[in-house]
Amino acid sequence: MHVLDAAVRDYAWGSPTLLPRLEGREPTGAPEAEKWLGAHPGAPSAVVGEDGSRRGLDEVIAADPEGTLGAARRFGRLPYLMKLLAAAQPLSIQAHPTLGRAREGFAQEEAAGVPADAPHRNYKDDNHKPEMIVALTPFSALCGFRRPEEATATFERVALALTEWADGDSTQVAVAARRMAVLLADEDVEGAFTDILDPASVWTAEGGVDQLVEALRGMPDLIRQDEALETALQVAEHFPGDPGVVVTLLLNRVDLQPGQAVHLPAGNVHAYLRGLGVEVMAASDNVLRGGLTDKHVDLAELRAVVEFEPMPVPYTDPEADGDGVTRYRPPFDEFELTRLSADAGRLAPTGDAPGAGVRAHVAGPAIAVATEGTAVLRCGDEAVRLTPGQSVFVPAAQTADAPLALTAEGHGRATVFVAALPSS
């Protein structure tokens, strides 16, 4: 097993307190958004040797792909990236491409000579990015399109608020809101989405979104009737004037409690709003944005990627797999997530080695991160002590020979989350 030292990304939307609180340390005052656990070239974790030496996990894998990856060699890389994600404010509204679209888009931009770090580049690599997040704290997100009739009712309320705000006049913004309601009544979700983000739209013009926000703030009774309007006002506090505020009215609001999860397939429009969670995704950085951002928005490419069919929220139901073992199995080839939880003083099952605690078999290369208590994680003859936020990489050669076993040190409970390949 290899102890990891993972990079923390300081994106502006990151929480200055959630990760420090998890890890039991003083905040620095700076935002701490994502702790990357993996071999992604954007920020590979460092493998720390007993002598203090450091090598990138990507280097360790490249030196022994058979032993480290095992069956995952078919992906040509460690197929997933794991993160601790801590959001204090909304992330950009975004969607991810299919594998075919990613390969095509990446090849086109490479052939066109678009620099890899160009701000207008859409495809950073040739991979797709299905993902899943499991909440560690109450966690809020926007996920997929609402049913058209629900969104229609919301925009009818918006048009009413804008008309009353203008003392009965039909302002351009009120007319635009009524147009949204008409499009959605005809189930033209793509038309409504496109109208909002069109560079010639009233919503992208200066003052358009501000009028909407001002009108809604003056009608608290209306806000109480519609959670989507309340969400839009909350988002507008962080992104004043951004057309993404209006896009939120098309999307499902999801509020997860700790232990609940959603998975996000290709084409799903989503935005995390706030909270701390364990996120796992295919190893990619391909993001097409659609608002709540100052980064590049390519509306044509975004429309080509997005699935406009309204669907139920894609919850990932946790599955109990023995005492202290919970599996999260999204419909993806690259990963699943296993949660191991052991109480201090738990006796080893009959026939197991002393202190074996909670056990689970995982498939292929694994990354484990502690989220609660002081954990002792074993695989075969090796053991590593982990406190919240600390992580370890377990090569496929080891997981093939022995299960992972967790015990809690001290008092209370220890919990680790383990990313690995889907198990049978």
UniProtKB/TrEMBL annotation:
Residues annotated for Zn(2+) binding in this entry: Q94, H96, E131, H270
Protein's name in the database: mannose-6-phosphate isomerase
EC assignment: 5.3.1.8
Annotated InterPro entries: Man6P_Isoase-1, Mannose-6-P_Isomerase, Pmannose_isomerase-type1_CS, PMI_typeI_cat, RmlC-like_jellyroll, RmlC_Cupin_sf
Cofactor annotation: Zn(2+)
Keyword terms of this UniProt record: Isomerase, Metal-binding, Zinc
Domain Phosphomannose isomerase type I catalytic: 3-146
